[in-house]
Here is the input.
Amino acid sequence: MEIPNILFQKKQRADLAARSGTEIAASEHAATHSTATAAQRRIFTGLSATSSTTATFTGTRSELEKITFFSTLLFTVMLSNIKVYVRCRARNEREVAENAGVVVSVPSREQIAVCSGAHQRTYAFDRVFGAESDQESIFETVAEPMLAQILAGYNCTVFAYGQTGTGKTHTMVGNLGADHSRLPTDAGIIPRAVHKLFELLRSVPDYSVKVSFIELYNENIRDLLGDESRPLKIFDEAGKKSVLVHGIHEVYIRTAAEGLRLAAQGSERRKVASTRCNDLSSRSHAVFSITVHMRTQDSHKMGGEEFVKVGKLNLVDLGGSENISRSGATNQRAKEAGMINQSLLTLGRVINALVANSPHIPYRESKLTRLLQDSLGGRTCTSIIATLSPAKTSLEETLSTLEYAHTAKSIRNRPQVNEVVNKKTLISEYMDEIERLTRDLNAARTQNGVYLDEASYEQLCRESESRRIRVEELEARVGGQQDRFERARERIDALETQLEHEQAAKLELEAQRRRAEGRLAQAVAETRQLQDTLRAYRKTSADATALADQLHAHQGHRGRLERALDANQLRWQETRGHVTAFAQQLDGSLAGAAAATSGELGALWDAIRGDLAAVAAEMARLNSSSVGQLRARCVESRDEFGTRVGVLDGGVQRLLGAVERDVAAAFGLFLERLAADRELVTCLREELRQRDDQIVREQSELRKYVEETLAQRRLVLDQESAELVRLVRQTVEQQAGRQKAELAGVEEHVTGVLEALEQMHRDRPDVLAQVDSRLADDETCVAAQSGTLRQRLDGWHVAEWEKTLARFRDEFVAWDDVRLEQVDDVSRKLCENLGRLEACVGELETKFGSTVALRVRGLHELQARCSGVLRDLNAELEQSLAGCAGLEDESKMQETQISEAIARCGQLSSAVAAVNDDLATRLEKLEEALGGDKTPLKRSWNDDKENVLPARKERVLGVKDGNARSVM
Ligand SMILES: Nc1ncnc2c1ncn2[C@@H]1O[C@H](COP(=O)(O)OP(=O)(O)OP(=O)(O)O)[C@@H](O)[C@H]1O
Here is the structure.
């Protein structure tokens, strides 16, 4: 690592007090002091609430103020989504040559639309750059705001993602130009960032800038600024979530030109490698990092102490995301593409896991994601530029890139300002490091084998010893843990045993519960059976009611039939009246016609007679002179008369013919009507017969059903009552058995107690006798002793003897008192024991007596309840039987009603037959009586045929328009 020769160089100190605005001072304070209080940090959080990274700064403030302002705004961005930009280039030469169609359009600054066949998909991003966008506008939108964040002490990352040849390198690196002190027009983000950074740093008093440039190829990290041949290793930074690239060559730069020179050098190396390895650039990822250290000072709060804050910008040019199969890659190239796609796939998985808030983020699955770990879901401000081709030939990759970028939009980072380090501490750390390295260097120069100086070696030994002790401590802790584990295991075993007992108890309880449930289920089933029986009863009665309703309906129908027959009869009477009237009318007409004809004939004869008289008179007057003329006139008159008679005869003949035709037609119609009526009557008869059969069938079914139901009910009731009686008997017997057993137990106990008492009573005289015998023994002993004493005292002085005797007597009295007290004591204790025993017996009597009485009462109550239940059941049974009897009566009544109805039907049938016969007779009579004008009869018959008959037929048979309809 190069030693920064410009680190903390003593530039002329900017006049910090000149900074305007208390918030700027406050922001610097909070941003520069690691010891800043939580309250101070909260102040900045509050400030950020109204801030925005896109806020523009106008006015005449110095660059420093501008930086500080941005840093104030950006410092407290606590949770921000990754910003995603899209850049779509114009068609390249190849695509133009192929005449590839354009499928991408940019409808607005935040939207991009892709036409895939007939469909168009639109995606929204933070900003979309079309083909017309230049490098500068992209830098200003994407990277420039990040520089302000870096100066505020944040880490920022911009990475370009997209298909090969869509302009990732163009966007990130672009043209670096030959003269590195000036920016070419098509310079990319890296050179522009370096230039802009140095512009901004002009107003920072002390700072240092270092850059690194690495390449990730086939999961190997290569240093593009250092020794390329030595692959670099990644380590997790102790105590942090970020990673360290061990041995990376970081070059301190003083000017932008130096930065550009290094960028160009790295890019050149990458290009050379690319040429060597056949288009490597599209198969490797490159990371250009700029790290800025800035000295800050708080003259107000920290006594002028100096601190160093750090900001870092990572500019990543990812490898191409093209499809392997489509690129036609094989062998080495396929492996490379696989690696590229592997790391990009892992990047995709990391993005998806972050978006889904997954507990595990697979950062460690590729070096790329390890390097970008802090930039994805970490403390870094991150932007992604997705690059696209507009050509139709790249449609699939374009859609894939857009989906990828769209998902990444949802990742949320928590940008945090880097830890601010006290300058002195930092310098001393650096000095220690330099010293250590120098020592190692010297040791390496002077010694063979181990390239360490003694202090380092001792340090190493100390560390090793410390580690050994640590290992021992850990082993001891493991031993302790194992003991605890054993104890825990024993406890678990004990608990398991207890658990087994409890489970057995639980199983027993379960079995009891199941038995109880079984009993309950049996009771429920019995109740259900009873309910079923009740339901069957209800159904029977409902069926009976329905049958009664049906019978009523039959009766109603019968009534309708009767009414129809009555109406028919009436109609026949009417018809007969019509026929009679017609006959009379016909008679009158014929009589009138005969009278008219005879009148005409009379008039004719009169006219003839007048003519003959006139002829005779004429003859007389002419005296037979003109007999010939007269004869001629006579012949003429005779012919004329004959003609007139012929005409008259023809009229009469025509009249008679018409009357005959009319009568024949009327008669035909009448016969038709008669046939129809006969058919109707036949139908009615058939229907009556069917209904009668149905009624008989239903009646027999009903009787059978009622009988079966009754039989079943009787059977069920018999079974139930038998079961109930059995159950009650069993319960009573069980109860009685239990009570008996209990009573026997109580009796036994009481007997035992009484026996013990009696034994004590019996033993009492013995005990007293024993006491008495002991007293007697004592007295005997005393007497013997006194005899012995008397004998001994014979030789003694009487006075002494008497004294001794008196003393002895006193002693004896005292001893006797003690003995008596002892006897009293024993006797008192015996009495007490006796009293206690009697009390105990009394207690037992009270207790068990009440229990027994309770049990007996319970038994009586149970018996009473059972009797009540039996009574209720008997009553219910009787009620049910009464109900059955009622049903039987009802069914008998219905039978009677049905028989009556059948009888009425028979009567009706005979009445109909009679009416039929009557009609036939009348018809015959009518046939005989028919003659004269028959037109009224025909009209009446036609009216009947068209109106009355169909209505009547419909009423009677339920037939309309030829469609059969059930009357039931
Ligand atoms: N927006 C653009 N304007 C002008 N030229 C562009 C643009 N984008 C890309 N190009 C040109 O297209 C070619 C390929 O671009 P570039 O090498 O940047 O693609 P890439 O995505 O980095 O490809 P790879 O993944 O293979 O590295 C270059 O010649 C570049 O100059």
The pocket of adenosine-5'-triphosphate is lined by residues 89, 92, 162, 164-170, 281-282, 319-320, 387 (CB under 6 Å). Residues 497-711 form one domain. The chain has four domains: 20-78, 81-419, 497-711, 729-910.
